């Protein structure tokens, strides 16, 4: 009998790996089981065992895939794991390389929402004693939302109508997608650090739980909690309640309602001034009239004729008081005129400011395009991106089996790392 040619252990493992990797069924599987020995390492990779009553399989989820998890996996949790089966050549053991994990039963998003709400509630982020009062007469109002959505237009429209004295500062961010949470959190923290406003509104229009998910992100919640500026949340419509709503100092049902809660109505204030002036006029006239009647009655009494000088002195004091009160009424009238004039000026200034900001955004967009690293691609270079869209700079930061996107000047390539020449 002819004996086969000997091969190295590495060659044997590589051959077995090639057989498994070429199997169409094993290239994309969904496996139901219970999580066991679930561990997250400093590298960001997740390692665990998936088991049922009779068997178990080792599993790994690389950092890039784990960053997309919408809930916190825990040992003992029933899940469905999606991924591929392959062999780790170093020890010859086969394992399941996970691309996604979904909980059985309730949806992943709902579970993540409940987990984060319970966690932050225990830490006290929702407690009423941490809520800051909303300023009654704000001079500057910051708005953290999309510059292209309906929410910002609703907020600006209501503020112009109700309180044109306030300057509106727009901090444009994405409000949907993976990049939205860090952008929203960074904008809120920047506004707080620089104290750019008296009140801050953040939110977006309504949508599905997926559309609103950025406002259920822990980074956004902690940025709102840490913000030195009072925050009004304005996410979605009345039925929608996000984590941001629980943390904010005040929750508004809609973006328009947030603007109403952020500022008073200047017309109502002017009416209140008119009403107060009328009441003051009546009170002054009544008081002066009563005083004069009392003095006249005293002066007419013969027994007090000798007190004429005293009475005249008191009459003069009343006249002086009347003059001072009339001066106060004049000041109130001048203040009313100033408010009306300022309202007209600010309406015009707001239109000019929005136009200037639009031109500035166009200029900055052109500048960013000129400096874009993607221009380099036209000269034959390529950029390797991990699953989070970050440029790969060091082979040691990429694990064998991890998926990469290689971006070319025209199009892109999806690749999987088979070997790494950096340090293991």
From TrEMBL:
InterPro entries: Exonuc_VII_L, Exonuc_VII_lsu_C, OB-fold_nuc-bd_dom. Residues 8-101 form the OB-fold nucleic acid binding domain. GO terms for cellular component: cytoplasm; exodeoxyribonuclease VII complex. Its EC number is 3.1.11.6. It is an enzyme of class 3 (hydrolase). Keywords: Cytoplasm, Exonuclease, Hydrolase, Nuclease. It is found in: Cytoplasm. Transmembrane segments: none annotated. Belongs to the XseA family. GO terms for molecular function: exodeoxyribonuclease VII activity; nucleic acid binding. Pfam families: Exonuc_VII_L (PF02601), tRNA_anti_2 (PF13742). Its main location: cytoplasm. Heterooligomer composed of large and small subunits. Residues 125-415 form the Exonuclease VII large subunit C-terminal domain. One of its GO terms (biological process) is DNA catabolic process. This is Exodeoxyribonuclease 7 large subunit. It catalyses: Exonucleolytic cleavage in either 5'- to 3'- or 3'- to 5'-direction to yield nucleoside 5'-phosphates. Bidirectionally degrades single-stranded DNA into large acid-insoluble oligonucleotides, which are then degraded further into small acid-soluble oligonucleotides.
């Amino acid at each position: 009998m002819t004996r086969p040619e000997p091969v190295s252990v590495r060659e044997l493992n590589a051959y077995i790996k090639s057989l498994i990797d070429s199997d169409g069924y094993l290239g994309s599987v969904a496996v139901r089981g219970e999580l066991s020995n679930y561990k997250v390492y400093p590298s960001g990779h997740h390692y665990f065992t998936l088991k049922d009553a009779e068997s178990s399989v080792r599993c790994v989820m690389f950092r890039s895939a784990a960053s997309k998890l919408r809930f916190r996996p825990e040992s003992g949790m029933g899940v469905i794991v999606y991924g591929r089966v392959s062999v780790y050549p170093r020890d010859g053991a086969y394992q399941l390389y996970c691309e996604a994990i979904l909980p059985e039963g309730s949806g992943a998003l709902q579970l993540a929402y409940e987990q984060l709400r319970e966690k932050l509630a225990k830490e006290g982020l929702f407690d009423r004693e941490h809520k800051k009062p909303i300023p009654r007469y704000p001079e500057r109002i910051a708005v953290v939302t999309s510059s292209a959505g309906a929410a910002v237009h609703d907020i600006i429209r209501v503020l112009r109508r109700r309180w044109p004295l306030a300057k509106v500062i727009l901090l444009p961010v994405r409000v949907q997608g993976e990049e939205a949470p860090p952008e929203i959190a960074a904008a809120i923290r920047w506004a707080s650090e620089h104290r750019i406003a008296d009140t801050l509104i953040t939110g977006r229009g309504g949508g599905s739980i997926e559309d609103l998910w950025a406002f259920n992100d822990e980074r956004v919640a902690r940025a709102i909690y840490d913000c030195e500026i009072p925050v009004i949340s304005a996410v979605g419509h009345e039925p929608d309640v996000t984590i941001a709503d629980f943390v904010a100092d005040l929750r508004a049902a809609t973006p328009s309602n947030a603007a109403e809660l952020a500022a008073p109505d200047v017309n109502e204030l002017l009416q209140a001034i008119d009403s107060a002036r009328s009441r003051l006029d009546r009170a002054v006239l009544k008081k002066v009239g009563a005083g004069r009647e009392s003095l006249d009655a005293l002066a007419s009494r013969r027994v007090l004729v000798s007190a004429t000088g005293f009475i005249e002195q008191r009459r003069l004091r009343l006249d002086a008081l009347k003059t001072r009160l009339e001066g106060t009424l004049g000041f109130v009238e001048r203040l009313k005129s100033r408010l009306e004039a300022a309202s007209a000026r600010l309406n015009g200034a707001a239109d000019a400011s929005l136009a200037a900001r639009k031109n500035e955004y166009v200029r900055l967009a052109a500048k960013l395009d000129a400096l874009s690293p993607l221009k380099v691609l036209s000269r034959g270079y390529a950029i390797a991106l991990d699953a989070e869209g970050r440029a790969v700079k060091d082979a040691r930061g990429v694990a064998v089996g991890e998926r990469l996107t290689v971006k070319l000047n025209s199009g892109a390539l999806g690749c999987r790392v088979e070997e790494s020449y950096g340090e293991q």
